[in-house]
Amino acid sequence: MTRRPFLPAVVCALALVGAGCGDDDNDTLSYEDTGTEIGDICQTVSLDDLNGKPNNDVPVLEKAVPEFEQAVQDVRDLDVDEELADTRDQFADNADEQVALLKEAQQIAEGGDQKAYRAKLDEGQPLGKESDELASKLGATACIDE
Fold first, then answer.
1. pTM summary value
2. For the chain, what are the domain ranges?
């Protein structure tokens, strides 16, 4: 029973450290601000109009891929708390992998092979799941696919 009061104190202290509270560097984003900023960046990229049909998706990808690349760079440029830096980098690395996959899918779609195109898009599902998990760790709920 003596551990119960101690555990909430530890959790609270970790939350304060994770949020960047007490940090003298005013440019470093807190946990909450990191999640908000990354969430805002995620909102600049939309793949909602993809439907798996090459004729529809080629123009969507032509617009979305460069936006996605810029978004990844914007995430990398964020000055986050050192406790979040590795997760932010993993999130950006995952996004780079998604961009590469989308570029491959775009090339296939431009050739018109719907079956191969859809198969390539399906390869991204594990990346999407990993991205959602990393976004959750960063507090970037706007980046999580529902």
1. 0.80
2. 3-143
